[in-house]
Write a sequence for this structure.
């Protein structure tokens, strides 16, 4: 027996990112940061990888709908997904995944690159809703400002939540891109973290983004004596690097 989701809404949340909202099935329980598999009944365009993809759930468990967000890469799957009409049925399985917050909350540094923001968006939304947000800092890297999904959401949260800070960073060297940018510039590294966090060894780290970015950051943190037990990571395959 197959399980299906019903598409409720689609919206573009960044220049290359689409968010799809589905009805949440009765009894569907997941932890913030987990993922699920979607299978499209029929592809409108050829895709060598087929009609199945894994998506992290971008919404929090308390929210009514199930949200996924994806970079529009031009693949047959993504093009078909973008054309689905409201009310369309999509087969799914899950949830699954071990990338989620510890039960005992402590000070957290989140680092995301590109569409790797989705599980972190779910985590931050959930703990903020429960008024359980510990001291938390989000470093979020994109090539350009218009590629930063959920940027406005994190700006608003930083304005209203005393224990949350948001540090967006751009890696493109375009003059137009940088002239009016108020955030950080360049790759996220330990020097950037130290500009915003006085005692980073007191935090746990959650990293998500392209494999190259995540692997490099894990190495940097270990080289700076961050305990490996305090580093949690997940890599998103199939996307171009955001340059960290």
């Amino acid at each position: 027996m197959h399980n299906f989701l019903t598409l409720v809404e689609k919206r573009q949340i960044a220049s290359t990112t689409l968010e799809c909202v589905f009805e949440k099935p009765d009894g569907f329980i997941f932890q913030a940061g987990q993922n699920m598999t979607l299978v499209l009944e029929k592809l409108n365009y050829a895709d060598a990888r087929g009609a199945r993809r894994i998506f992290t759930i971008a919404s929090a468990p308390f929210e009514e709908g199930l949200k996924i967000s994806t970079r529009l890469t031009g693949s047959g799957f993504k093009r078909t997904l973008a054309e689905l009409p409201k009310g369309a049925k999509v087969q799914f399985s899950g949830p699954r995944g071990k990338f989620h917050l510890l039960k005992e909350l402590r000070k957290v540094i989140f680092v995301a690159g590109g569409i790797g923001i989705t599980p972190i968006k779910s985590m931050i939304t959930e703990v903020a809703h429960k008024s359980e947000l510990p001291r938390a800092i989000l470093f979020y890297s994109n090539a350009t400002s218009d590629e930063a999904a959920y940027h406005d959401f994190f700006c608003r949260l930083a304005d209203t939540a005393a224990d949350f800070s948001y540090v967006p960073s751009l890696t493109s060297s375009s003059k137009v891109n940088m002239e009016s940018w108020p955030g950080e510039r360049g790759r996220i590294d330990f020097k950037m973290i130290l500009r915003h966090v006085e005692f980073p060894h007191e935090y746990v780290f959650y990293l998500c983004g392209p494999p190259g970015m995540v692997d490099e950051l894990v190495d940097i943190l270990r080289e700076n004596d961050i305990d490996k037990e305090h580093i949690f990571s997940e890599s998103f395959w199939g996307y171009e690097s955001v340059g960290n």
Q: What stands out?
A: The helical segments are 76-83, 117-129, 151-160, 175-179, 190-196, 211-223. The chain has a mean pLDDT of 92. The domain at 3-96 is CATH 2.40.30.10 (Elongation Factor Tu (Ef-tu); domain 3).
